[in-house]
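Action item from last week, closing it out:
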Amino acid sequence: MIYGAMNFPVMPVVEEIHSFAGLGFDYLELAMDPPEAHYSIVSENRLAITEALADHGMGIVCHLPTFVSTADLTESIRRASVTEMKQSLSVAADLGAQKAVLHPPMISGMGTYVSERIRGYALEFISDMVDMSEVLGVTICLENMMPRNGFGVEPSELDMLFWRFPSLQFTLDTGHANLEQGGSTRLAELVERFGERLGHAHLSDNRGVYDDHFPLGSGTIDFQRLANALKEIGYDGTVTFEVFDEDRNLLVQSRDLWKDMVG
């Protein structure tokens, strides 16, 4: 497997590359969020970023913006959010990323009362992103979301999305899968159903209540069971450790623990 870590977007991207290289990671997962990793800032610093990656022999996976509203009921907000996503995908391609992680849109606010309309906007957005990704040569890896997202959470709904969009691959997020009732069952079912579409993974631990981004072994997720399942399907792709803590040695500890589990 290939191991990476995600930048903290308030830090300059080049500094984050040097930091993760020093910890021995294979690639940077670039969270393309402001203030320091907005697509406009990344584009301005593209040469410095690509040179830093090359100097350290690191690859890159891009994570498209999180804090946007691509299925919003307000048309101007929705269109602006979709534009942010498309511009970010274009810059991801310029950086040489072969994968881009995408969050399914959220159903929130008044949208909870007209959820089918929101789902329509969501499908339109995903379709546009898939079409663009195929032109750019970047694979979209759709991430399973936490229950409060309201869309793209349960295996049955994701099954519809992967059937509808054959070129989509799957980003398995262990923290999202483990939340609320039936978390361990949901995680196992996601691997069983979408193992053939698995293109990327986010590993972090929690206790089933909040998306805590704890180090592996600090919560209730059975990572040994997951490691066995991924070995069984022969997955050897990218794995990002989403352990968000000031002590980045916890990233290394989580990576080493996972390496032991996968043997």
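Closing note: The chain has ten helices and eight strands.
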